TrEMBL record:
InterPro entries: P-loop_NTPase (IPR027417), T6A_TsaE (IPR003442). Belongs to the TsaE family. NCBIfam families: T6A_YjeE. This is tRNA threonylcarbamoyladenosine biosynthesis protein TsaE. It is found in: Cytoplasm. Pfam families: TsaE. The gene is tsaE.
């Protein structure tokens, strides 16, 4: 069975923000999301818009140096990770993250925490294309696959322009 996937073009930062709002509106009660993409692809921009849409007030900092930032959200806690600077997956233990406790995981550079992260529901792939970004969503679990189908009905996201 092929994984449900969705591709879109995000012409500007506002489109990435709209994606964050759409993902917040459609997310299941518990979700693990891996954010893939090179430096500057828009992962933190997306996470910030998503957390804002979930009602997080105050500053939303990129966890570039702290590795993790945590926020109360409806239904529990969101953890936003950026593993770019992690020494190895073993260091994740020291962050004291409770796998079962978090309602939402947003993980930048998940490949650097391989083996020490909870199983992924939704994979988000961002890539630079011209002045904008391309988006690919992949449903990786049963819940993630249902989620991608819900995202297909979010019409404020533009189709991927070839
Ligand atoms: N769809 C888009 N089109 C054009 N620019 C965008 C788009 N989405 C985000 N950006 C811009 O890209 C820049 C880098 O974004 P961001 O910091 O979110 O990247 P990142 O993937 O988190 O990088 P890093 O791996 O360094 O953490 C920001 O200036 C942001 O405004
Ligand atoms: Mg970032």
């Amino acid at each position: 069975m092929s994984r449900p996937s969705l591709e879109r073009f995000l012409p500007d930062t506002e489109a990435t923000d709209a994606l964050g709002r759409a993902l917040a509106a459609t997310q299941p009660p518990q979700a693990v999301v891996y954010l893939h993409g090179d430096l500057g692809a828009g992962k933190s921009t997306l996470a910030r818009a998503w957390l804002r849409a979930l009602g997080v007030g105050g500053p939303i900092r990129s966890p570039t140096y702290t590795l993790v930032e945590r926020y109360p959200i409806p239904g529990g806690e969101a953890v936003h990770l950026d593993l770019y600077r992690i020494g190895g997956a073993g260091e994740l233990e020291f962050l004291g993250l409770d796998e079962a406790g978090a309602a939402l995981w947003l993980v930048e550079w998940p490949e650097r925490g391989a083996g020490a992260l909870p199983a992924v529901d939704l994979q988000v792939e961002l890539a630079v294309r011209g002045a904008g970004r391309t988006l690919r969503l992949l449903g990786m679990s049963a819940a993630g696959q249902e989620w991608v189908k819900r995202m297909e009905n979010q019409d404020d996201l533009r189709p991927l322009a070839e």
